[in-house]
């Protein structure tokens, strides 16, 4: 039984590692995130400062390690739309997602 649980744990960790790489690559493949964050009137200096502040000027490997490290600590960054920490948004919405009554009301 312990062997089965250990095998499942290893499979889960491998799946999470693959998923983290896919999410990271897709987030970078969709284009420059600064185009979503900064106004259209932003100067090249604004872009350079934002790129440095967000760590987007670092190599992809460093960005990925930082991404995984923050995710492991529960820091999922700030929502571009809500301009609030993502962890805060998840905590706010999770109780409703976990209740069956919320599911029944949405039907």
Distance N terminus to C terminus? Answer: 40 Å
> What structural class should be given to the helix and strand makeup?
mainly alpha
Specify the number of helices: 6
Shape, per Cα inertia axes: flat
Oligomer: single chain
Taking pLDDT < 50 over at least 5 consecutive residues as the criterion, the unreliable ranges are none
Order of helices and strands: HHHHHH
> What fraction strand?
under 5%
Rg from alpha-carbon coordinates: 18 Å
Number of strands: 0
- Kindly state the mean pLDDT as a whole number? 88
The helix content is over 70%
Write the layout of secondary structure elements.
Layout: H1 2-29, H2 34-37, H3 44-54, H4 60-72, H5 86-98, H6 100-106
């Amino acid at each position: 039984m312990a062997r089965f649980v250990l095998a499942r744990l290893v499979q889960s960790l491998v799946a999470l590692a693959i998923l983290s790489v896919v999410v990271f690559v897709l987030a970078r493949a969709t284009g420059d995130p600064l185009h979503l964050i900064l106004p259209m009137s932003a100067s090249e200096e604004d872009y350079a400062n934002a790129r440095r502040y967000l760590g987007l000027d670092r190599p992809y490997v460093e960005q990925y390690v930082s991404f995984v490290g923050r995710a492991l600590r529960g820091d999922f960054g700030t929502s571009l739309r809500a301009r609030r920490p993502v962890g805060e948004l998840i905590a706010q919405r999770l109780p409703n997602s976990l209740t069956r009554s919320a599911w029944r009301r949405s039907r």
